[in-house]
Amino acid sequence: MEWRDEGILLGIRRHGESAAILELFTPSRGRHVGVLRGATSRKIAPILQPGAQLSVSWRARLEDHIGSFTVEPLRSRSAIVMSDRQALEGMSAVTSLLIHALPEREAHLSLYRRTEALLDILDEYSVWPLAYLRWELALLEELGYGLDLSRCAVTGVNERLDFVSPRSGRAVSAEGAGEWVDRLLPLPPCFLGGTEAPDSEVAAGLVTTGHFLRQHLTDQTGQRPFPGARQRFVDGLSRRGGLAQRQHQIDQ
Amino acid sequence: MSSTRDIDALIAMMAKLPGLGPRSARRAVLHMIRKRALLLTPLADLMQTVAATARECLNCGNVGTSDICDICASEKRANGILCVVEDVADLWAMERSGTFKGRYHVLGGTLSALDQVGPSQLRIPKLIDRVATEGITEVILALNATVDGQTTAHYIADELGGRAALSSLAQGVPIGGELDYLDDGTITAALNARKRL
Description:
The complex is a heterodimer. In chain A, a hairpin with a 6-residue loop joins strand 6 and strand 7. Chain A is elongated and about 60 Å long. By secondary structure, chain A is α+β, with helices and mostly antiparallel strands. Chain A folds into two domains: about 1-75, CATH 2.40.50.140; about 80-150 and about 185-250, de novo design (two linked rop proteins). A five-stranded antiparallel β-sheet of chain A has the order 3-2-1-4-5. Chain A has a three-stranded antiparallel β-sheet with strand order 7-6-8. In chain A, about 40% of the residues are buried. Helices cover about 40% and strands about 20% of the residues of chain A. By secondary structure, chain B is an alpha/beta fold. In chain B, the strands form two sheets. Chain B has a four-stranded parallel β-sheet with strand order 4-3-5-6. Chain B: It comes from Thalassovita taeanensis. Chain B: Keywords: DNA damage, DNA recombination, DNA repair, Metal-binding, Zinc, Zinc-finger. Chain B: May play a role in DNA repair. It seems to be involved in an RecBC-independent recombinational process of DNA repair. It may act with RecF and RecO. Chain B: This is Recombination protein RecR. Chain B: One of its GO terms (molecular function) is zinc ion binding.
């Protein structure tokens, strides 16, 4: 068995003295694991950082073997994440969620394309948080748990949609919320379109996507803990959003 | 066969050491047997001693033969500056350079999503305690230039708040390194950290 493809490095684990087990996200084979011999050499170790875009070939005697990779670098993203905290936290959230959520060897081409595009704009601070939020919505959709934000689940209207039902994932309008308003999740305007949103609004959106990711992925993956990297990213974003909001209040 | 059973067991044990395989373990054992008085007996004695006395320093996590390691016990070391490293091997590497004269703190690993290592598995609470009680004014985060290393550095920075000045090691071209052989990430980091001549 042999194939060639490109992929995004999601994670790397030492295996013995000089080898490593790589987790890659590839367009045609989804999340794929394999062994890379000589991965700790000084020549190759710098390119094997999570988020790197690699050209890979995989070989094994049988298809269900773990197999071994040979890799060549296409694009490194380590320079951005090493020098920028938000980029580092964002990239870690993306890679750890993909490791946690995706089943092995199942192609998710559109999610792969979105992930590649998202990682390519890691250093564009003004648009990245919103792009990340939309990526999480796409991840939920890809996993079969997409939110239905087209109309209110209670009244059927498609105006003033302010909440999301934590059970059904359907939108709820301000009128429809009634006495359940405290139990509903926020539906920030950026969920419904637009190209700009303050960090505080994105952080509110992440509360909603985080709820569904936790709910569905805990069911799916059993006892494995939800990735802490995502929470660190959300905390960082909330902190910066909060600071920006305070600064805005001071300016006024 | 039974006459070589112990030697085979020794070879098998040696082969588990980093850098050694069955073939090199066989060569090492054979060499030691040939130089029994010079190598094998002193090595056996030393291993027995170290096995009985080696322990982690209660203060910094370094490995030594007493509860408080030589670095922590030394009065010549500068108080107030703490260098945080991932592993004892990193501490030894820093010591080999002979440049740093302050004290150390060994974390015992880095945060890792893949290996599910969280803050509670590292010696971060002890670090915060040391910064508070030992009058530390500067913390140097000498962690590996990897995603996990930098994530851990940011986490520690958050935990320490403003209790001490924080710094990290520079990233760039290694001494003797040729640009042609460097990866994109290292070249970018080196360019970003360029300095005036």
